[in-house]
Design goal:
4 helices; mainly alpha; 109 residues; single chain
């Protein structure tokens, strides 16, 4: 399995988990939410919205276009901080994000 295939698999798994746990939204946020200059659009999107509407589709676009994947990429640390310890999806989401991040470790990318 290529790195691109492995990343796509992780992205599909993230989407499936979000759908299974009812964190996948049917309606896209307003365009203005994507005009943020903050990392992760933290001032305009909730953390799970950013995963759904920014990270997952952009990574799929990168893979579909055959472009190089980012290096030293990591999103799990943000979600460790952004999702409260009591968030019901946190313990399910973090391990999957860590598996995605591991694909971008220096020895894999």
């Amino acid at each position: 399995m290529t790195l691109h295939d492995s990343v796509r698999h992780r992205l599909n798994t993230l989407e499936a988990l979000m759908r299974e746990h009812r964190h996948w939204q049917e309606s896209m946020p307003d365009d203005s939410a994507f005009a943020s200059t903050q990392p992760f659009c933290m001032d305009t999107l909730e953390p799970l919205q950013w995963l759904q509407w920014v990270l997952i589709p952009r990574m799929h676009q990168t893979i579909d276009a055959g472009l190089p994947l980012p290096q030293s990429f990591a999103v799990a640390p943000y979600y460790e901080m952004a999702l409260e310890a009591a968030h019901p999806f946190r313990d399910t989401l973090l391990p999957e994000l860590q598996r995605l991040d591991a694909l971008f470790a220096d020895d894999n990318a």
